[in-house]
Design goal:
By secondary structure, the protein is of the alpha+beta class. The protein has 14 helices and 15 strands. It has 5 domains: about 10-105, no CATH class; about 115-175, no CATH class; about 180-255 and about 265-290, no CATH class; about 300-455, no CATH class; about 465-610, no CATH class. Belongs to the Mediator complex subunit 17 family.
Length: about 600
């Protein structure tokens, strides 16, 4: 055909190494690549029947023209004929390859399947992931390298995993400057210097690590030695957490909950380790109300007892208890003087003082009718011409003058009741221990409804026994004075044939039970009402009659109200046999006792003189 030139390219002549990567082999294109190209070339969206017929006719006419051109080429010269044969063979080859491609398109290949597409898709995603990982590693490497110079910038660009596992600044770089890099001697010496420097750094690092480990071992040894000493001293340890740091720690129970105490502060403390030297310090804690614990703000207070006596119509201080510092110092014994043991004993002592004053305040509220009042942190008891003050005082170890009463013991009058004040303080502490024992017995007994009610509603007997015994002593002296006055008045009248004999026994319940058991339980004595006895014997010599009057003084359940039992017997002889009871009565006022005695004694004396 004239005006047309057909060019052919045999890819096999050049080989795979010389193939242009931008030239695509149409015979090796997949279906997903061929279909878009056909749609773009054919314009299937605007195709019609007439256009298809016209295209078929043009293709047939072109084939006929190519056939005629082939016949004309055979009659040309030898060179042209050879070129035609070459071109013809090339066209045949291209045509054969086209037919082969069409057959592959018709039969279908594994390359053009959907499974192959999924495989290639997975491989592509794998390559992308690998590229992202490599990029992330490169970024982490650069960030870690920068962190030694600029920590904030390195931390913001590092991955979270690398931030948790590798510390900042652990990767570094140095710039090595060589004067003449071509000189081997200088390069060798620089290398040896770097090795020596590295060895020195490693040696220094190991030495510092060894020192730190040695210090840590010493701290651990000190800590566990203190814990062991606390355990060996008989303290109760338990597992807890430090409220300041939240770390696990060991606690100690220094309170009296296991002894029967019902105080709101159970007495718990954390044995806190000092990070500097490993010593153990005491950190008191209390319940936070939400199931946890918090640090307790402790203010140490102790109880002081004062006695004011009426002198010249004015009350003056005549006695005061002394604070004994030995109560808060615990000797280390075989463990030496360990401060943690002293701290435990100190805080336990002041906890007992707090509990005691709390129980005294609780009990004093029910004794207002008996001249007991509460003013701020002080309980005031008025008994006859004396005033007893029980005060809670803040502990100040630097003020030795106040602790030892140096400013008060200036003369004999100001210190004459010091012993009595100290005995009152000891009595109050013993009574609190008695209350602990009572509660502990209820807890250890059978858990019946009665025991539970007693445990919840029992009131302490601490202040009432003290007040009851003081009032009982005054009442006993007053009644004995009345008896002596009545009998002495009849003696002064000159009745010689009547004889009077008076005997008394104060605190008869505190007397020894028997010769074999002379010591009685102090708790049992103190929780019983005080009892005293007065016996009066009146003898009539003329009629040989004897009148016996027994007065038994006791107190009510509150220990403060007076109860007097009067029993009068009349006997016909001095052997006190076959007597007749004339009177049996109980009175609660001293005035009634006086009237009864006057009436009975006066009648008996009249019979004796008549």
């Amino acid at each position: 055909m004239e005006g047309k030139i057909h060019l052919g390219l045999d890819h096999e002549l050049y080989g795979e190494g010389y193939r242009d990567p931008f030239i695509q082999d149409e015979n090796k294109l997949s279906i997903t690549e061929i279909i878009p190209r056909i749609l773009q070339e054919r314009h299937f969206l605007t195709i019609t029947e007439e256009s298809l017929l016209k295209e078929i006719e043009e293709e047939e006419e072109g084939e006929r023209e190519e056939g005629r051109d082939g016949d004309d080429d055979l009659t040309d010269s030898e060179g042209n004929g050879e070129a035609s044969r070459v071109a013809g063979s090339e066209d045949d080859k291209i045509e054969n390859e086209g037919l082969k491609g069409d057959e592959e398109l018709k039969t279908g290949s594994s390359i053009n399947t959907y499974e192959n597409f999924q495989v290639q898709k997975q491989e592509l995603s794998k390559y992308i992931s690998t590229a992202l990982n490599e990029t992330s590693l490169s970024l982490d490497f650069v960030s870690l390298l920068i962190s030694s110079v600029k920590p904030n910038i390195g931390k913001t660009t590092m991955s979270p995993h690398l931030t948790k596992t590798v510390p900042l600044g652990s990767l570094n770089s140095d710039k090595l400057e060589v004067a003449d890099p071509h000189r081997s001697e200088e390069t060798s010496s620089i290398g040896q210097g770097l090795k020596l420097e590295s060895l020195e750094k490693i040696t220094s690092s190991f030495r510092n690590s060894s020192l730190r480990l040695n210090e840590q071992v010493l701290k651990e040894h000190t800590y566990w030695e203190n814990i062991h000493s606390v355990l060996q001293s008989g303290e109760v340890l338990y597992k807890t957490r430090d409220p300041t740091t939240g770390f696990r720690s060991i606690g100690v129970k220094y309170g009296f909950g296991d002894s029967g105490s019902s105080y709101h502060d159970p007495g718990l403390a954390v044995l806190k380790r000092d990070s500097r030297d490993g010593m153990v310090s005491l950190l008191p804690v209390i319940s936070s109300g939400t199931g946890g614990i918090k640090v307790a703000d402790k203010v140490y207070k102790y109880i002081r007892v004062k006695i004011l006596s009426k002198i010249d119509d004015d009350y003056m201080l005549t006695g005061q208890s002394i604070f004994n510092s030995s109560n808060i110092i615990q000797s280390g014994g075989s463990f030496g003087d360990i401060s943690i043991l002293n701290d435990i004993e100190k805080i336990r002592f002041f906890l007992f003082e707090e509990d005691l004053f709390s129980q005294l305040t609780r009990e004093a509220k029910t004794l207002i009718n008996y001249n007991v009042s509460i003013i701020s942190n002080k309980i005031i008891i008025e008994v006859n011409d004396n005033i007893i003050e029980i005060e809670s005082v803040i502990y100040d170890e630097n003020n030795e003058d106040e602790l030892n009463n140096l400013y008060q013991n200036i003369n004999k009058e100001s210190s004459m009741n010091n012993g009595k004040a100290q005995q009152i303080l000891i009595f109050l502490k013993l009574m609190l221990c008695c209350f602990y024992k009572y509660n502990l017995n209820l807890r250890q007994g059978v858990p019946t409804a009665r025991n539970k009610w007693k445990l919840a509603n029992s009131h302490p007997l601490i202040l009432r026994p003290l007040l009851g015994y003081l009032r009982h002593e005054i009442n006993f002296k007053n009644i004995l004075y009345i008896v002596e006055n009545i009998t002495s008045a009849y003696k002064s009248e000159g009745v010689e044939d009547a004889a009077v004999k008076i005997s008394s026994k104060q605190y008869s319940t505190l007397q020894p039970i028997s010769e074999t058991k002379k010591v009685q339980d102090i708790f049992e004595k103190s929780t019983k009402s005080p009892t005293s006895e007065i016996t009066i014997l009146l003898r009539n010599n003329s009629k040989k009659n004897v009148l016996k009057i027994d007065l038994t003084l006791s107190a009510s359940e509150t220990f403060c109200n007076l109860m007097v039992n009067i029993s009068i017997m009349k006997y016909e002889n001095e052997k006190l046999e076959d007597g007749v009871k004339l009177l049996e009565s109980n009175v609660s006022e001293i005035y009634d006792v006086e009237e009864c005695l006057q009436w009975v004694i006066s009648n008996f004396m009249k019979d004796a003189t008549s």
